[in-house]
Amino acid sequence: PHHIRSHFVHHSLVQTKMFAFRRSALNNGMRSSRGFTRQARYSTLFDHTLHFQPRQCSENDVAKVVLIHEPGVEALLGSLHASGSLFEKPVNLRKAREGFQTFSRVLSEHGIQVLNVRDVLAMNCDRDLKCRMELEDLALQTLKYVDINKGLDYKYDKVPALLSNEYKRQCLAAMGVKDLVDIILINPTVYLAESKYNTPMKLEQLQMKPMLNLTFTRDQQLVTNKGVVITNMGAHQRDTETTIIKFCLEKLGLPILGKIHPPGTIEGGDFIAGNEDLCFIGSGLRTNFFAVKQMLDNNWFGTRRVAVVRDIFDCNQQRMHLDTIFNFASDNCAVMLESVMGNNSDRRRLVTEYSYDSDTGKYTVSRRDVEFSQYVREQGYHIIPISESQQEAYGINFLNIGENSIIGVDESTARTILSDKNFVGNIECIDFSGVTTMYGSVHCCSQVLLREPRSNLSKIKVKQTTYVDPPDHLNGPAPRLLTSKETLPNSVLLIAPSYNQVEDHSLSSQEEIKTIMASRANNFLKDEGLDMQILHEVRKEFSDLHKKLIERNIKPIVITQYVHEDAPLATFPNHVLTTHSAFETQTGKNIYIWHSLKNEARRKERKQRIRQLLNQYYDQEVKLYETHERRGRFLEGSASMVFDRAASKAFVLVHPSDKEPATNIAVAEDLVTNHLNYTLVKLEASKDCPADLLSNRVLFVGDTFAVVCAEALTKESREILLASLKGKQIIKINLDQAKELATSMVLLGGYGRNAYMRYLLMSNSSWEILNDDQRSQLQKCVDEVVQVDVKLTEERANLGLDSMVCPLFVGPS
Question: Looking at residues 329-354, what average pLDDT do you find?
């Protein structure tokens, strides 16, 4: 029957009424018995290692073994500054521990083996010397001595010995087991100096880096259908927690599949087990592409399909993990935050699905950038939408302990789930408010090491990847060549903005950019305040651009730029990279070209993962930079060269007075001579044209029209240009308009409204620079002018929308 059972247990009752398992519980159905004190648990609960393979196939399988960590002195230290410790609010430790004890008791009442990290660390150490020595070795790693005199001449010969690991071992050997555990959890560093009086050394300072968030045992490991994987944490405050959890798992005798290595970061809160066929992994604030790739390459997920749920547009701490916005209540019911659902949401998630090929033993992309709620419904799940206020009360972060039985913390969310006719099950609500102030709830605070395997594929309508929808050019890596009618780019590559892009580069020299990046921390979570708000606004603009393209059936390929990649302007790939269809090339093949760049910081944008993606759609990669960069010859992609794809002409503007030009005519000649079947048209800048105005700022060439700034050219070059554009409608702009990015536009083609459409993509800023007559002329040249608000992005980078959008030729949808 549907019911809600609330537990509000007084602290003194919890203290006196502990729950534990008899020794035989490890082998006999894991039944609980009451009456054991915590002291007895150290010697009784863990007599033997646990002999099972950690595994989670489905969130709705019956939980058998759960790992938790009740907050202690380390959380108390973290509460001294809540925000700096990744906590949501100041913490009342007593109340947090009461909530944890209630949670542990409820789990035990359901016959679940509850393992506490502190207990596992201490187990058997009071009677097994080997266990004791292993715990001391772990404490030795966390305890550090620092000589503030830095090895200068010592007055006492004993000083070096007092700084040694051997002396450290002597100190640790004298401690009790509980003390050793505390040392491990507070992670102290002792700063020492030689003393002139009393003892040879004196303690000057004691510094601690406590395991502030070890309470959230979901995150240090992933338990998949294949086994357990040690993670690499995305937040620097948590980077030592995995060592503790790995030690505990090994002490329990549980096999570990492997560990995620940098630059990969991944946290267990981003993993949701679906069924034998499909699992979900979030990618965004805490989990990145590099970690997901390691999981896929090693086949550590253990399912035929893996849905990578990409958080590109949101990346908010309130929705840091996938389990904060999505969970399974039963075999056929999922809950999802309502505000992330649908293509119109600025917080929407996009799913890239990977499918396992048994012939090659590898995962490959089977679908790309499908809106999350659409994808989940296609798998046969019913979605129960959860409101913003319910999510903020951690209503989604419940723990499903199996067979539609849920432990939750928010009664309002529980009522919403129980009121849905598609859910048939039970929900128990407990008071966990003392823990949720630390930014997590019962799902975050528990890792299910073992669920009883069962096949639930027959219980839900799981769609296999045999789709009857119209073919989508991004659902597979095998495009066909374009026809002559479709010579316009029909897709785009977008690089999602990271923290780097919120820096103001409008007045930055190359050296200033390098200085900024040298001081930039690896994790933008360290930076708060105004910059984070700017990043939010930049992502919102990016979301609007993506949305406008999707609405017109021009589906972009989106790649996320990560902070550690040290590429501050990666969101503007069109200077670095251009792509060309078979109609443009001398070989008759689709190619993409990496250009020769003057800006050294931008050379880091040539990423291997972009190559791997483009290799799915293009026949050949051209590395133009290999020949020219070392000789100081540059061509800044579409900024230096404007392509007339319909007439096979390439226009290059040169500044005779520029001693170190970003556009070198020799590179342009190499490009058209050896790679593109184009005629090169050389244009010379007038004396009134600023040296930083490159080709794309004085000229845009479409299939039937061109936008031209004649004032920027010499008289002879104007005549050459107009002759080269014969047959096209010419829309003239002045030099002031050119300086304000009036030519920042992209012409795309796609199938919309049941017909082939020509779309002119422009930013609101560029559109507003034009006068009424110029706008009217442009509107007559295309089927639709699509305006996008990216004002903040343009202003902070001093680059236009045309630099953000890299046109692609990947076959029509």
Answer: 97
Contact 561, 263 (CB under 8 A): no
Which two three-digit tokens encode residue 741? 């990015």
Angle, CA of 718, 720 and 722, to the nearest 5° = 65
Separation CA 208–CA 245 (nearest Å): 19
Band of residue 675 on the pLDDT scale cut at 50, 70, 90? very high
Task: Let me know: does 677 contact 582? Beta carbons within 8 Å.
Answer: no
Dist CA 541 CA 759 (whole Å):
19
Is 380 within 8 Å of 463 (Cβ atoms)?
Answer: yes
Could you identify the residue written with the tokens 């495009």?
479
- DSSP H stretches of helix in 80-210: 93-109, 117-122, 129-142, 159-162, 165-173, 177-186
* 187 backbone φψ class: left, alpha, beta (φ>0; ψ -120 to 50): left
Split at pLDDT 50, 70, 90, the class of 442 is very high
Asked if residue 387 lies in contact with residue 338, where contact means CB atoms within 8 angstroms, the answer is yes
Rounded Cα gap, residues 327 and 336, in angstroms: 7
Tokens of 643: 């392509």
Whole-number Cα distances in Å, 609 to 274, 605, 613: 27, 10, 6
Strand order in the sheet with 221-223: 221-223, 228-230, 258-259
In DSSP terms, which residues pair with 194 in a beta bridge?
201
Cα–Cα distance list, 416 to 164, 399, 408 (Å) = 60, 16, 12
